[in-house]
Amino acid sequence: MSLPAVIKEIPFVDPADIFPDFADLSHALFLDSAMVDPRLGGVSYITADPYRVIEARDDAVLVDGSPVTENPFDILKKELSAFPLERDPNLPAFQGGAAGLFGYDLGWCLENLPDHQADDMSFSPMAVGLFDVVLAFDHNAQKAWVISTGFPETEEKARLEQARKRASWFLKRLKTAGRQGWPAMIMPPLTWQSSDSQAGYEAKVQKVIDYIYAGDIFQANLSQRFHAPLPENFSPLAFYKHLRQMNAATFCGYFDTGDGVIASSSPERFLKVEAGRVETRPIKGTRGRSNNPEEDRALAADLLASDKDRAENVMIVDLLRNDLSKVCAPHTVAVPELCALESYASVHHLVSAVVGALKPGKDAVDLLAASFPGGSITGAPKVRAMEIIAELEPKRRGPYCGSLGYVSFAGDMDTSILIRTLAIKDRQVAFQAGGGIVADSDPRSEYEETLVKAKRLFEAFDAMSSGRSSFADIKAAG
Fold it and tell me: Is 284 annotated in the active site?
């Protein structure tokens, strides 16, 4: 194995200032630490123009548009193993590799479950590029680099030439980056519809509770879906600017999948692998925040004291311990954090951490396949919870509750859970908000929790709107 062929340190800038200059490129991807948390890395990445694209559709798996017969994860493993890379330990972890979208519906393929839900947006369950060049930004050290692997060339001289050529191309864009800026737009107010009325959603929550008492499951993650047509002048990039400012989170991201856009402000890590060490950080338990400091502290204290929210979190921790144990060495899976409080722009959350060490012969792709989709957004047991979700949610989830992130040539990985995430395609936008339902859940409280989680996403649209409040309309519709 060898290091990336070209590594060049560049002046540190806020990556958000320059991403608009790369957003027009094929499969442009911004893994955005909009809220920097040193414990979680505090690194952002910009990349685009992959040399290969792997796409999983309902009826086929495509590599650069040509159908293949293998499982999408097997293809991913094959592509990454063809270009082994030694990670430079002095640089951020993603130094080239596979990156993009692993949609929730990919889980149906893995579990061989029947699919009967309508799919009105038709996002590919998986859209992943193989990226040979990356811009990496370490917010904590205030350093940045262009990293160019030279792949898919493998002969040493040809790889070095390719790496220099590609690095030069990115550096040329950097010279003028920041001049374009984020697009601005004012649009008419959107006409939102929800998949459920308040009464309808509460009835579905009760149905989940009935399944729990019948012994089918211990917990299921139920959501409601909001969707609206978009005006002709709508700019996903302009919207993302408002989203990342108004709902800054540790795992924000923007990805052009090739036939649509994902705009995410997720606070949740799904899976991280670094030098064979594994971490997942499930979120379960939520309270809204208050502008009044005393009330805000009381809300946080109430969450920490909640037996219901703690039980919800612990159930998912147990599920994820089991998932990690499939590919981690014996006696390495542990829970160093349980139900810790984390606070974000609009919500308090309970967050736990589950860690482990990969078994010899297992890698990040094996871990992803063994754990997908994330237990925090399915329930327990996972497969039965997914069946109940499909019964009660009228539309396929698409990108929602899938993952966005990377698997590097060197074997490292970092992925988010796609909550607080919008899918934008064909002048339509959709997003979902939900929560874990357990035996003592209160249907009305669960409905109100979905609105707490959705509030900042509606407000990001309101920031570009010339009219009424989208969120007020949804609340009034009940």
Answer: yes
